[in-house]
C-alpha cells in the first residue's frame, strides 16, 4: 500500500513540476527567530498576503514602514518541517535518477538557514536536510527498481569550492576540465564510487568539516566557501538496454551579505569580495542563459565553470532563497528577495514535457 501511495504522490508532484515549465524555480524559506533575536524584532517584518495563503506562494517584507511583496513558486513559513520541504523537491531527485542534470542551490545571507536546509541540524536526525533525504530516496529507488531491470552506479564528490583562489590569494588550486564525453574532471577532488547511504554520509561529514569556516559578525560559524555536493548516477536497464545518466548537484552557497554588514577586514574582507564576485558570476550566467545570449560567461568563476554542464540546456534548476525574520536583517533579506525574483523570472533551456 505504501508503494502505491508513494507512486501516486510521485505522479502528482511530477505533474506539478511540469506545470512550472522551463523557468528556474525559486522556493523561499523563512527560518524561525532564534532565541537571541527576540528583542530586535519588535514589529514583525515578514507577513504572508491572505490572498495568497491557500497557494503558499506569497511573502511580504516590511522595511522602514514600506511593504514589499513577492511571489515565488513556493514560500515556506518558519513552521515548515524539513520533511515538508523535501516533499517539494523529491521529484527533482527522481529526475536525476531519470537522467536529468539537476542543480539545487541555497542562496541567502549568512545565518539565514542555508546549511540547515541542505544538511540539517547536527545531532537531530529528524531535522536532517535535503542532502541526506535525497540520498535516502535515491538508495530506496535504486533498490525498488532492481526487479524492473534497472541497475545504478553512483559516484559522489563534495567540496567547498575555493573562493580564495579566485581572489589570487593562496588556497587549494583546482583545475576544472570538461571532456568531450561531458565528464568533468577536477584536480584534487576525490570522486568515489558509492554503494550505500552510510558511505556517502561519511564522505559528506568529512567534506563539511573541512569546509573553510571563519568568524564574522554575522554568524560564528559563517561559512566562507560554496559547498557543492555532486552525485552522478549511471543507470542501465539490463532487460531493455535503456540508459540514464543523471547528475544531482546540491549547492550550499557562501553567504550573500554585503561587505559593510559582514564586518570583515583583512583576509576575510578579501574573501567576502571574492564570494560576492562568484555569486555575481552565478547570476550573470543565469541571466545570460535567460536572454539566450551567444556568450555565457561560465568561465568567470570556478563555481559556474564547475557547474557549466548542469546549467542551461534541458537541466533543471531550483534555487532556495533563505530568509531571516530578524529586523536587523531586513535590508539583506530585501536584497535576497529581489535577487530571487529576478532569477524566478528567468526561463532557461527547453522545457521537457514527457510523462
Ligand atoms: P547559513 O547556512 O545560512 O549560514 P544556518 O543554516 O547555519 O545558516 O542557520 C543559522 C541558525 O538558524 C542555525 O542555528 C540553524 O540551526 C537555525 N535554523 C535555520 N533554519 C532553521 C529552521 N528552518 N528551523 C530551525 N532552525 C533553523
TrEMBL record:
Protein name as catalogued: Kinesin motor domain-containing protein
Domain of life the protein comes from: Eukaryota
Family per similarity comment: Belongs to the TRAFAC class myosin-kinesin ATPase superfamily. Kinesin family. KIN-14 subfamily.
Signal peptide range in chain numbering: none
GO molecular function: ATP binding; microtubule binding; microtubule motor activity
Domain named Kinesin motor: residues: 23-346
Binding site residues for ATP: 108-115
GO cellular component: a single term: microtubule
Region (Disordered): 145-172
GO biological process entries: microtubule-based movement
Range within the parent protein: 377 to 731 of 743
Entry keywords, A to Z: ATP-binding, Coiled coil, Microtubule, Motor protein, Nucleotide-binding
Amino acid at each position: 500500500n505504501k508503494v502505491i501511495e508513494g507512486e501516486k504522490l510521485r505522479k502528482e508532484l511530477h505533474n506539478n513540476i511540469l506545470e512550472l515549465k522551463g523557468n528556474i524555480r525559486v522556493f523561499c524559506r523563512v527560518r524561525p527567530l532564534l532565541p537571541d533575536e527576540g528583542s530586535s524584532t519588535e514589529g514583525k517584518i515578514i507577513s504572508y498576503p491572505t490572498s495568497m495563503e491557500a497557494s503558499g506562494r506569497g511573502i511580504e517584507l516590511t522595511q522602514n514602514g514600506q511593504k514589499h511583496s513577492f511571489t515565488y513558486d513556493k514560500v515556506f513559513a518558519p513552521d515548515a518541517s524539513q520533511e515538508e520541504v523535501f516533499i517539494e523537491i523529491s521529484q527533482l531527485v527522481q529526475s536525476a535518477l531519470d537522467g536529468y542534470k539537476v542543480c539545487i542551490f541555497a542562496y541567502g545571507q549568512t545565518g539565514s538557514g542555508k546549511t540547515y536546509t541542505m544538511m540539517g541540524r547536527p545531532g537531530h536526525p529528524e531535522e536532517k536536510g535535503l542532502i541526506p533525504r535525497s540520498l535516502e530516496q535515491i538508495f530506496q529507488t535504486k533498490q525498488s527498481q532492481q526487479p524492473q531491470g534497472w541497475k545504478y552506479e553512483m559516484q559522489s564528490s563534495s567540496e567547498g569550492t575555493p573562493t580564495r583562489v579566485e581572489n589570487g590569494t593562496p588556497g587549494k588550486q583546482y583545475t576544472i576540465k570538461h571532456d568531450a564525453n561531458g565528464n568533468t574532471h577536477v584536480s584534487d577532488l576525490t570522486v568515489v564510487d558509492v554503494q550505500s547511504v552510510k558511505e556517502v554520509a561519511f564522505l559528506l561529514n568529512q567534506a563539511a568539516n573541512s569546509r573553510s569556516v571563519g568568524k564574522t559578525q554575522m554568524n560564528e560559524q559563517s561559512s566562507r566557501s560554496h559547498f557543492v555536493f555532486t552525485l552522478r548516477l549511471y543507470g542501465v536497464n539490463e532487460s531493455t538496454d535503456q540508459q540514464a545518466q543523471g547528475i544531482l548537484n546540491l549547492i550550499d552557497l557562501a553567504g550573500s551579505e554585503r561587505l559593510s554588514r559582514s564586518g570583515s577586514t583583512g583576509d576575510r574582507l578579501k574573501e567576502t569580495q571574492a564570494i560576492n564576485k562568484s555569486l555575481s558570476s552565478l547570476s550573470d550566467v543565469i541571466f545570460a542563459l535567460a536572454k539566450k545570449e551567444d556568450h555565457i560567461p561560465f568561465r568567470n568563476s570556478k563555481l559556474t565553470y564547475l557547474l557549466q554542464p548542469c546549467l542551461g540546456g534541458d537541466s533543471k534548476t531550483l534555487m532556495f532563497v533563505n530568509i531571516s525574520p530578524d529586523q536587523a536583517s531586513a535590508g539583506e533579506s530585501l536584497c535576497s528577495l529581489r535577487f530571487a525574483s529576478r532569477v524566478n523570472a528567468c526561463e532557461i533551456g527547453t522545457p521537457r514535457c514527457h510523462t
